[in-house]
Amino acid sequence: HRYLTQFPEADEEAQEHFITALLLEIPDHSPVARMTVCGHPTPLLIRHGTVTAVASPHTAPPLGTWELGPGARTAHAFSFLAGDTLLLYTDGVMEARDPTRTFYPLEERVAHYAKSNPTALVHHVQQDLLTHTHGALGDDAALLAIQRSHTASLSGLHLGDLLHGASRHGRAHDRYEQAPAPPAPPAAAHPARQDRRG
Questions:
Q1: Domain PPM-type phosphatase, which positions (predicted)?
Q2: C-alpha 172: how far from its chain's center?
Q3: Which end of the chain, N or C, is more open, meaning fewer C-beta atoms within 10 Å of its C-beta?
Q4: Number of structural domains found in the chain
């Protein structure tokens, strides 16, 4: 962004100097995930065999589109429970077409493999994508599956509070009871000096 601002180029060249981004935070001790979207496709959430697109009400422009201004980058929180899987992907996946120019129906196809483990899910979607395009992808395509194994024990924590806090402040204020700090070790004893004079 700083480079593009200080060294403007021809419009056709500047159009190529941007990148989409998705910042995903998955705390160990909270049943939520938080994402910040900068022009990037949002992930698919798989829960109990059902696939849902995770929509973000706060989407900023891609990084490097300096003529559009910096934009507000706000984190959006959503529930991410034990056993849930997130499938992240690049636009090369959703824009892939078959010989008849039909786009790859990602969400529909992922539903067929929704009960697969993350490794198998990525493998199945990859092979299905190559079948759809007859092996001719028009753009780079990447897939990443993340599964929540468990969350740490929570005390006095409500999911609704986390989501509300994240929506209002851009991040959730996690509230959980911490174990009391161990008592400080006793001060080391120093033997009294003996006066050897005399």
A1: 15-148
A2: 15
A3: C
A4: 1
Give dist(CA 48, CA 64) in Å, integer. 38
Tens place of pLDDT for every residue, the chain, 198 residues?
444 445 455 455 555 678 888 999 999 888 999 999 888 999 999 999 999 999 888 777 788 776 555 556 788 899 999 999 999 999 999 999 999 999 999 999 999 999 999 999 999 999 999 999 999 888 889 999 999 987 554 444 444 544 444 443 333 333 333 333 444 544 444 444 444 444
Can you tell me the distance from the alpha carbon of 137 to that of 49, in angstroms, rounded to the nearest whole number? 28
Q: What is the DSSP letter of 181?
A: P
Establish if 182 belongs to a structural domain.
Answer: no
168 assigned to some structural domain = no
